[in-house]
Design goal:
Blueprint: H1 3-6, H2 22-76, E1 88-92, E2 95-99
Keywords: Membrane, Transmembrane, Transmembrane helix
Transmembrane segments: 21-40, 46-69
Length: 107
């Protein structure tokens, strides 16, 4: 036996095919295993898709609630006075008189 003859039987084409009663049983077993493997794969794909959907919904809710929190924070934040809103008050004859509280453009 030479070096090339030792490995002549390796490969798909050189496989020995079962014959007799074992051939249909092995074919049926292989088909059953393939169907089970595809079912498990489909089930895992459904679980993965459901997990992605749940993550997307939770993320959307988080962004929505963050928007509400930012809006509430802006609404409750103290607003700084502008320099032209300064009110001056002086006590004249026992009464306080204020200047600068009128709005511009009103008479």
């Amino acid at each position: 036996m030479t070096q090339s003859d030792r490995f002549a039987h390796i490969g798909f084409a050189a496989r020995r095919r079962p014959s007799g009663l074992m051939a249909p049983l092995m074919w049926l077993g292989g088909a059953t295993a393939a169907v089970i493997a595809m079912a498990v794969g489909a089930l895992l794909a459904v679980f993965a898709a459901a997990a992605v959907a749940v993550i997307a919904v939770v993320g959307a809710m988080l962004i929505f609630l963050t928007g509400f929190a930012m809006r509430a924070r802006r609404a409750l934040a103290p607003r700084g006075r502008r320099s032209d809103d300064v009110i001056e008050a002086r006590k004249i004859d026992g009464a306080w008189v204020t200047y600068g509280w009128e709005r511009h453009g009103r008479s």
